[in-house]
Pentacotripeptide-repeat region of PRORP domain-containing protein (Polarella glacialis), 186 residues
Amino acid sequence: MDACIQSLRLETALSYFAEAKEQGAGIEANRITYQSLLGVMVQRGNYKAVWQLVDEMQNNGIHSSVALSILLRGISCRSQAAELNRIVQLLDASSKAETEEKPVMDEALFASLAEACLRCGSLDLLWERTRLYSSQNVLPKLSAPICGSMITLFGQARKMERIMLLWDMIAAQEVMPTSMTLGCMV
């Protein structure tokens, strides 16, 4: 199955996956199996299959920060705002799940969320999530490049109050702004 995934032969990989599940030969799909399949499905833009696989993961109690990052990295344009909202709902549901494998809002996951929101033009969603995670004390340390992008886009949207609050967050987290980040403030 791995060879099929590596060579992007999704249909063959899925048939092996289905066969292994049917035979129940003591082989169970794990997070890595699901993440590998999700990566190819997202790369191909097959969101119907993506959401079927995500539903299966949830039914099997598999929650993964990596899977969420894969889904978020697949968001590429404004037309995918509905997909982005669904991923955020999944993130919320996963963080409340009663499992040992809860996704943790770490730097990589937040960066994936921020980048997806920025690509999709969902500045309100990004700001809402930034404030929510900050209030829950789970906001990871912001990176200077993400901050610069947020400052630029909030500036273009004329959201000066958000820029100032974001700058306060940057200072509170002791993020060392790069020359680019400072340039975004000008």
In short: Residues 141-186 form one domain.
